[in-house]
Amino acid sequence: MCALWPENPQEVVNSLRSYLQKKYKIQNIGVIITDMLAIPLKWGVIGGAIAYSGFAPIKDLTGTKDVYGREFKYTRVGILHGLAAGVAVVMGEGAEQTPLGIITDVPFVEFQDRNPTETERAFLKIDPTEDLYGTMLTAVPWKKTIKSK
User: Fold this and answer.
1) How far is residue 53 from each of residues 60, 69, 91, 138, measured CA to CA in Å?
2) Burial of 124 (0-12, 13-18, 19+ CB in 10 A)
3) Contact 49, 33 (CB under 8 A)
């Protein structure tokens, strides 16, 4: 079985959130479109987000203190991908055919009564110079090839 991504995932997720808000008269609602995601050097796929709407995808802890009173210098919690991974475990990644998961009562989700801006969506991507895997990815002389039949 294969399910293809929508042509414009962000447009679809924005419209789905708007529809659900109107139909169920709910203000605080977020929507995520997920797909399988592989983590480098780890077995097992997890759910990852393709598009989202209605909530803040990242919680920035920079400048706050940890449980030992030390200040976080550079820590951002991936709310979006954490929720996507959690719901995908329940929905399944195989033949389960559970197309929709509902997550409720998550106190750390910061809802937004709007679609994400392009700037907010771009903020989710890390420049290779700042990424944990960036050195490994940029040190390789990648070559793009197109194989013909």
Assistant:
1) 18, 34, 20, 31
2) middle
3) yes
Place of tokens 């700042």: 130
Q: What is the largest CA-CA distance in the chain?
A: 61
Three-state SS letters, 58-92:
EEECCCCECCCCCECCCCEEEHHHHHHHHHHHHHC
Q: Which two tokens stand for residue 61?
A: 């802890």
pLDDT tens digit sequence for 38-94: 887 889 999 999 999 999 999 999 999 999 999 999 888 999 999 999 999 999 888
pTM tops 0.90, yes or no: no
**pLDDT tens-place string over residues 86-132:** 999 999 888 888 888 999 999 999 999 999 999 999 888 888 888 88
Report the alpha-carbon distance of residue 31 to residue 61 in Å, rounded.
Answer: 23
- In 3-state terms, what secondary structure has residue 108? coil
With contact defined as beta carbons under 8 Å apart, do 84 and 48 qualify?
yes
Q: For residue 85, what are its two tokens?
A: 């991974």
Residue 50 dihedral angles phi and psi, to the nearest 5°: -100, -40
